[in-house]
Automatic annotation (TrEMBL):
UniProt name for this protein: Branched-chain amino acid ABC transporter permease
Organism: Roseococcus pinisoli
Family affiliation: Belongs to the binding-protein-dependent transport system permease family. LivHM subfamily.
Keywords assigned by UniProt, alphabetized: Amino-acid transport, Cell membrane, Membrane, Transmembrane, Transmembrane helix, Transport
PANTHER family noted in UniProt: ABC TRANSPORTER ATP-BINDING PROTEIN, BRANCHED-CHAIN AMINO ACID TRANSPORT SYSTEM PERMEASE PROTEIN LIVH
Entry keyword annotation includes Transmembrane: yes
Transmembrane segments: 12-35, 68-87, 99-118, 149-168, 200-220, 232-259, 266-285
Presence of keyword Transmembrane: yes
Entry-linked CDD domains: TM_PBP1_LivH_like (cd06582)
Length: 294
């Protein structure tokens, strides 16, 4: 299998793998955004900065505490999620009854502040974070060599997305979350602490972004701009999938990553804009997004 559609097979499959990796990050980040918007009605523009904080948390746990990748994968999302809980309690909770624009402006400003603090402390050049020894090397698939760590990223992102969807759609706490978005007063009348539920929801959405940041740290250099480079694309993914749609974010994230990868093979000039072209077409046909409700 030397060529497919006139394209060398290693090049085609390599770009498909790259698309899947990008799609994994799009899916995880858009999932966190969808959870926060769908449950709290807050457009969290600080999500890219929180993704970056996850990568930096992993790097600092290694450099200052000597903790390896596996500990970072567990602890970094918890630490950044706890920071998100503090943000929600002190600032964001005050905006729930106001227009979406206030939340967008607040989180946009918070994202700029967080990025500025890290850029002032660590500069703009990337900091290396090595791949764990257990995930180094590559698999020979016959038609291409697939780096083990890249395969791990795609697999664990898919599992995390599925687990999040199952928690929200199939568990009791997920039903409480969905009910509180429809009628918070009624849910509170049944003895459910809705403000605490909203706080934990925001913290979980932030932790998902941080988890993606830890996964990204060995692939991309750890730098303060790594979140701002992704956040616009991720917002486009959320809009295409449907604002607040959990399943839509996951499917659209992986799908658009693959489309972007294939575009780099067949029409490289359009690879940086294809997602926004898809967004324009989808919004013309379905203003609420592919999986959204009007």
């Amino acid at each position: 299998m030397d060529e497919i559609f006139g394209i060398p097979a290693p090049l085609l499959f390599g770009q498909l793998l790259l698309g899947l990796i990008n799609g994994a990050f799009y899916a995880l980040l858009s999932l966190g955004l969808a959870v926060i918007f769908g449950m709290l009605n807050v457009i969290n523009f600080a999500h890219g900065a929180q993704f970056m904080m996850g990568a930096f948390a992993a790097w600092m746990l290694l450099e200052y505490a000597g903790l390896n990748y596996w500990w970072a994968l567990l602890l970094a999302p918890l630490l950044v999620g706890a920071f998100g809980v503090i943000l929600e309690r002190t600032m964001i909770a005050r905006l729930y009854k106001l227009d979406h624009l206030y939340g967008l402006l607040l989180t946009f400003g918070l994202g700029l502040i967080i990025e500025g603090v890290f850029r002032n402390q660590y500069g703009s050049s990337g900091l290396p974070y090595r791949i764990p020894p257990q995930l180094s090397g590559a698999w020979d698939l016959g038609f291409m060599f697939m780096p083990v760590y890249r395969g791990w990223v795609v697999a664990v992102a898919a599992v995390m997305c599925l687990a999040t969807w199952l928690v929200i759609e199939k568990t009791k706490i997920g039903s409480y979350l969905r009910a509180s978005t429809e009628n918070a007063a009624l849910v509170q009348a049944f003895g459910i602490n809705v403000p605490r539920l909203m706080t934990l929801t925001y913290g979980a959405g932030v932790a998902l972004a941080a988890f993606a940041g830890v996964l990204a740290a060995p692939i991309y250099s750890v730098n303060p701009q790594m979140g701002s480079n992704l956040i616009i694309i991720v917002f486009a993914v959320v809009v295409i999938g449907g604002m607040g749609s959990i399943l839509g974010s996951v499917i659209t994230g992986f799908g658009l990553g693959i489309i972007e990868g294939l575009t780099k093979v067949f029409y490289p000039e359009a690879s940086s804009t294809v997602i926004f072209v898809v967004m324009a077409i989808v919004l013309l046909a379905r203003p609420a997004g592919l999986f959204g409700r009007a």
